Amino acid sequence: MSLITKEEQLQVDGLIEKLPELVEEAKYDELYGYQLDPKGDFYDEEVTKTLVIKFLRANKFDLELAKTQLSKTLKWRKEFNPLSAGFSEDHDEKFDIISYITWYEKNSSNEKVVTFNVYGNVTNPKDIFGDLDKFLRWRIGIMEKSIQILNFKDPDNSSMVQLHDYKKLSFLKMDPDVKNGSKATITIFQDYYPELLSEKFFVNIPTILSWVYLFVSRFVSEETRKKFKVLGNGTDVAKYLGDQIPKEYGGKSKQSLKEQRFDFDNSNKEFQLSEYAAFLLSKQFTEELD
User: Fold this and answer.
1) Domains and CATH numbers, the chain
2) Most buried residue among 36, 53, 127, 224 by CB atoms closer than 10 A?
């Protein structure tokens, strides 16, 4: 993350000063597993500054716009409960063939957490996208899991990469269920997860599927579009993400994408939920038992 100017720092300080007001208004103080209430037992000033800067960057350091977006995000998180979607709820195994969260420790700055979304594995769009609520809770859960591997105190691992692979895609037209699911997901990420992506790859897109990229581009900001990379050949991905990725993407790893999937229970990388996320999930579990 690039350094900020003195003028931008003033906006950062201003938004941090507004946090108690925003928390009180939303009646909610959690953002990506971290506490935003400065008086809270789990408050981390360094993490909060990183998160505040993301909202400001997404709004070109306009304090009022960033404040509005953050306020809406807190209210949405209170209602949707994305932490539960990521770490408490059981999702249908049919989704497992689509998304693969991976961790590449040796990769360049902010390319260590990579989520592969292999839509070419989808043979029945209605089965995946037909129930919008189930699809969104699963998809947002994947995002929340990816975020927990990030480190908002480390500028080299404070954002992630997403890759969408359309090889062997079986549906050549925009199915209504696919359209609804895709639009809803894009809107949620754009509105409530600003500046968490360093790059977004669209790979193995033949000309006949150019509508995929055009559709996605319609619903994101210009700054987000600048992070898009469209690759006709999936093996070119290694030119950007290095040799640790699977051979099908041009890497040298002997492991398949499935074998590289990040195991949150048995990972070589020391992983644990943020303290506040663990506290909130434990509290929710206890309340449900009562």
Assistant:
1) 6-80 (1.10.8), 93-260 (3.40.525.10)
2) 36
